[in-house]
Amino acid sequence: MQIEQLLPFFAPLIIITVFSFFGYIFYKSNKKASIELGKQPLYTERVAGKIDTLYYKGPFIRLALYDTFLVLGYTKTLVIYYHEITSIGAKKRLFGELLTVTFLQNGKSKEIHLASMNMKSLRSTIEDQIQEGPTN
Length: 136
Description:
Number of helices: 2
Distance between the termini: 69 Å
Oligomer: single chain
C-alpha cells in the first residue's frame, strides 16, 4: 500500500486523538478535590498558566477560591491554603501579565504563574482572603 492510500485513515485518527487529549485534560481539571465537596466557591475561573514545569495554554486550569484555600484543577488537583502563600506578584509578559503566587508546601517553596482575563479582580480576591484569615 502506498502512503497516499493510508492518508484518509490517518487524518480522522489524528483529529480524534487531539480531541481526546484535550477532552481528557478538561475532564481531569473539572474533578473536585474532596475538600471542595459541599462548599460554594467565592470565585471561579478558567485560566492558563505554569504549574511545576508544565505550561497550560488556554483555559485548561480550573481555579476556585474558597474561604481558607484555593484549588487549581489541571491534570492533577492542587490545594493551596492561604496561610501557605508567602507572596503574590505580577510578571509582565509580551501579551499581558502573569499572576505569580509563591507558597510553602511540605517545607518547600513553590511558585505558580496564572494568566487570567480578570487579573486585577483575581489578585485582589486572593489578597483579601489572605488578609481576612480563616472565617471558621
